[in-house]
Specification:
6-stranded parallel beta sheet, Rossmann fold, 9-stranded mixed beta sheet, alpha/beta, binds adenosine-5'-diphosphate, 2 domains
Length: 491
């Protein structure tokens, strides 16, 4: 099959979070099974160019219709650790992707409306006719809309779209200017509740809603989250739209690329280890302490890696830092915030805790350090308010780092409580789960984890190894994606 992924991220060259990991990992798995996979991405000026091989301008004359005129683009081609990627570079004074950041600009909806249009125009003009366009998140929600309303009539009538939603919280909103810019026009047609009109703001078009309505199939990244989005509050206002489209909506758990995240082969860590050589994890713990200037002590290291964002339960992270210290543990945090208030708050904490030898806050995005933390920590905290799938707990388990998580979304389906998960045999359990959003809830789970570490090290070790034994690779998820591709392409 010929599959083109259209996305705003691909790890490690463009990565703000799990989306980048998923786009890369799934593509790699599909290719390893003999499918032809290509990726279309924006050419951001701040992406990691050191991870692209053979970058060259492959198409110099891509003209993308925009506001009745056209913007000249170059399309660069290069390999990101073996994946064939096309990077779109517009030459216009809007400087859409030359902002030094991937997201967070006031005109993000316009930037990614342009990207979606350019991706389709590139496919059209270069005569690429994939079986499936796999689009991701709100940034590409307009791709299926434009495909079925415009490009289908220009020679792309056989292309089919799978739309994957990684985060319902960010949906992409725009006004009629988006319609004029992209050439969709017909305001009254698109501002209809059956199409793109937002379910709650009648003056707004909702890109993600467009993606759901127009795609041949829609999925989110775990079955449990699919249920939460459809029936609960996790759809952020799109529950009704999902309900109307439930015949083509499902959940597929993300995988982890064990080519990158594997303690036995990880080149970022000083002492690779596996289940048989679990004791060598201690060497990584030592290196982590040395690198972050933590004192050497027989204490468990509790870690948090993630975006410092409301979604991730920052208040609980903050509380857990102090609680872990009081309970005789050490704490390592790696995270970055786009929200100014959260950013300032954690910088304040960092300065306040600077001289404490049991805690380190690293407020940046640092892929290398992330590997060392997964390998060196004992416990990984994931106290999210909502979590479509969550990769940190999956990676942590592969590294024998026991997850302590809130029971929501994908965390429910992947972490099984050591003490209370009566549905699973003791040897199938993998971590600690709490459910409420208050401080006591996180305290009680951390308490149980830290107690086990101190009072029953053999059991703690066994729990860590049980997590390592699970297979959360892309093998199973790729099977499911292939079934969907196959299903929609015959429609
Ligand atoms: P989300 O996609 O909501 O951000 P996920 O758990 O799905 O959360 O994926 C997060 C990914 O981003 C993981 O690979 C994690 O290791 C990585 N990550 C998050 N924050 C950082 C950071 N500050 N530095 C390095 N890696 C990070």
């Amino acid at each position: 099959m010929y599959i083109v992924q259209i996305a705003s991220e691909c790890a490690p060259v463009i990565k703000a979070g799990g989306l980048g990991d998923v786009v890369y990992g799934l593509s790699r798995e599909l290719e390893s099974r003999g499918h032809c996979v290509e990726l279309i991405l924006p050419k951001y000026n701040n992406m990691r160019y050191d991870h692209i091989w053979g970058l060259h301008d492959a198409y110099r004359e891509l003209w993308v219709p925009w506001y009745g005129a056209a913007i000249h683009c170059s399309v660069y081609c290069g390999w990101v650790h073996g994946r064939l990627c096309f990077f779109i570079e517009p030459h216009s004074e809007d400087m859409f992707f030359d902002r030094g950041t991937y997201y967070g600009c006031d005109d993000d909806p316009m930037r990614f409306a342009f990207f979606s249009k350019a991706a389709l125009e590139f496919l059209l003009q270069s005569n690429k006719r994939p079986d499936v366009l796999h689009c991701h998140d709100w940034q590409t929600g307009l791709v299926p809309v434009m495909l079925y309303e415009m490009y289908k009539y220009h020679g792309m009538e056989y292309q089919r779209v799978l739309y994957t939603i990684h985060n319902f919280k960010h949906q992409g909103f725009g006004g009629s200017d988006v319609l004029w810019a992209t050439g969709l026009n017909r305001e009254s047609y698109y501002f209809h509740y059956d199409r793109l009109r937002d379910n709650f703001n009648p003056f707004s078009l909702n890109f993600m809603k467009g993606g759901i309505v127009y795609s041949n199939h829609v999925n989110t990244v775990s079955p449990h989250h699919a249920w939460e989005a459809h029936h609960g509050s996790c759809g952020f206002g799109l529950g009704h739209t999902l309900h109307l489209n439930q015949h083509k909506f499902s959940g597929i758990l993300n995988g982890v690329d064990y080519g990158i995240w594997n303690p036995e082969t990880d080149t970022h860590i000083p002492a690779p280890y596996g289940i048989e050589t679990f004791e060598d994890k201690a060497l990584n713990r030592k290196e982590l302490r040395d690198r972050l200037l933590l004192r050497a002590a027989d204490k468990p290291i509790v870690a948090f890696i993630g975006r410092l964002d409301d979604q991730k339960g920052v208040h609980l992270v903050h509380h857990a830092m102090y609680y872990a210290l009081n309970r005789g543990a050490q704490f390592v945090l790696l995270g970055s915030a786009t929200d100014r208030t959260i950013h300032d708050w954690f910088w304040h904490e960092k300065r306040h805790l600077n001289d404490n030898p049991d805690i380190h806050l690293e407020l940046s995005f640092n892929e290398d350090l992330a590997h060392l933390i997964y390998a060196g920590a004992d416990l990984m905290l994931v106290p999210s308010n909502f979590e479509p799938c969550g990769l940190t707990q999956l990676i942590a388990m592969k590294y024998g780092t026991v997850p302590v998580v809130r029971g929501v979304g994908g965390l429910v389906s992947t972490v099984f409580d050591w003490d209370y998960d009566t549905e699973r045999a003791p040897e199938e359990r993998t971590g600690f789960v709490f459910y409420e959003t208050d401080n006591y809830a996180v305290e009680s789970a951390l308490n149980r984890a830290i107690d086990l570490y101190y009072q029953s090290p053999q059991h703690f070790r066994q729990l860590a190894i049980q997590g390592m034994q699970y297979d959360y690779s892309w093998r199973n998820p790729a099977d499911e994606y292939l079934k969907i591709y196959d299903h929609i392409r015959h429609k």
